[in-house]
Amino acid sequence: MSFSKTIQMYIFDGNPNGRIMCELSNWNGRVYKISRNELLQFSQREDAQNTGVYFLFGKDDENNDTVYIGEAEKMIVRLKQHLKDSEYWNDCIAVISKDNLLNKAHVKYLENAFYMLAQKSGRYNILNSTVPTCSSVSEYDEAMLQEFISNAKLLVNTLGYKAFDTIDDSNVNQRDEAEYFYIKAARGANAKGLIVSDGFAVMKGSIIASSNVPSMSESLKNRRNSLIKKGIINENFEFTKDYIFTSPSLAASIVMGRSANGLTEWKNNKNKSIKNLEEL
């Protein structure tokens, strides 16, 4: 059963693009959002020395969202190292415990768990060169850390970063068959999808067109190639997992291999488009 949550958010200096501190009621965790140019101000806080995990967000050369996932025994020391040796990130999310009770084994476990969540979601390109090792922890600690992960995910999502949101978080598995939409089009496209809270999900097993039309934009071609490179679409042009797009139109364009209006292309089993249903 899901419960409503109360989030406390403190925006330093009234600047939403700078530093933000978030907490949940009855949770000992704390999440900071820190822009790269405000790392010095963050370093002046006592809890900047705490142990925790962090996520560095940025864009690659093709404007794809990227994330680096790490852990640190002294958060600010590690973040300053990244400031010196890498330019790929603009914003940092730091997750610590207010009482600094997380130890090295805890944060190694968290680092691995968040890496696996980011990999499963497929929303961001992960910049880690290797898969973080997972520490062995007691059953008691594992239960505590799973709750820590759930709460941290909620706050990171609230701050606008969906790197760790999987298809399960959108309750796709709880939908009725009548809520699905379909596309059958040229060059073998045959896909099934669903409107979810943060976009449009194309279901595992859906087939995209075997080729693009010549007029398809470079950005759409790059997006399609990126999904193939990541293994989200295989060599048979089939989705290997459920995948969430930001809109029905982007989903339809990738499926059909051309620019498309998803509001009219996706139709349910009664041949009603999304647009038709929204106008009712």
Looking at this protein, list some descriptive labels.
alpha+beta, 280 residues, 4-stranded antiparallel sheet, 11 strands, 7-stranded mixed sheet, 22% strand, elongated
Description:
By secondary structure, the protein is an alpha+beta fold. It has eight helices and eleven strands. It has helices at 39-43, 75-85, 104-121, 139-158, 218-229, 248-256, 262-265, 274-278; strands at residues 7-11, 19-24, 29-35, 52-59, 65-72, 91-97, 125-126, 181-184, 190-196, 199-202, 243-245. The strands form two sheets. It has a seven-stranded mixed beta sheet.
Question: In angstroms, what separates the terminal alpha carbons?
Answer: 32 Å
Number of separate helices = 8
Main beta-sheet strand count, sense and barrel state: 7 strands, mixed
Helix content: 25-40%
Shape: elongated
Counting DSSP E segments of at least 2 residues, the number of strands comes to: 11
Question: Strand order within the widest sheet?
Answer: 1-2-3-6-4-5-7
Rg (CA only): 21 Å
| Sheet/helix structural class | alpha+beta
Element order, helices and strands?
EEEHEEHEHEHEEEHEHHH
- Taken as a percent bin, the fraction of beta residues is 15-25%
Q: What's the mean pLDDT score? A: 91
Topology, please?
Elements: E1 7-11, E2 19-24, E3 29-35, H1 39-43, E4 52-59, E5 65-72, H2 75-85, E6 91-97, H3 104-121, E7 125-126, H4 139-158, E8 181-184, E9 190-196, E10 199-202, H5 218-229, E11 243-245, H6 248-256, H7 262-265, H8 274-278
Parallel strand pairs: 5-7
Antiparallel strand pairs: 1-2, 2-3, 3-6, 4-5, 4-6, 8-9, 9-10, 10-11
